[in-house]
What does this fold into?
Amino acid sequence: MKKRRNHDAGFKARVALEAVKGERTVSELAAEYGVHPTMIHQWKKSLLDGAADIFERVGRRAPEIDEETVRSLHAKIGELAVANEPKVREAIFCPESSSLGPAGEARDDR
It folds into this structure.
């Protein structure tokens, strides 16, 4: 029984480019590189489908935002703000007895 081989992206691109050129048949390429013709067809299709992405500007893509994650992060920020409110008030109104420094970070007055 043959073991599956994992080919790196460079190898796949090289074979797919040769298939796109059309100078040799897919069967000839398969025999030369030792891969199944179906794989070459899949790599060629992937190359042609993804070719337009090369020319896309990276900055133009809108970031994919998971609304549920945003809601949960906002909830967590609210919880932390409520939990820290007494400490911040103490630091503002009683700075000499507070455990927080001037910018709201914990201070170490040992």
Notes: Residues 67-110 form one domain. Helices lie at 9-21, 26-33, 37-50, 67-93.
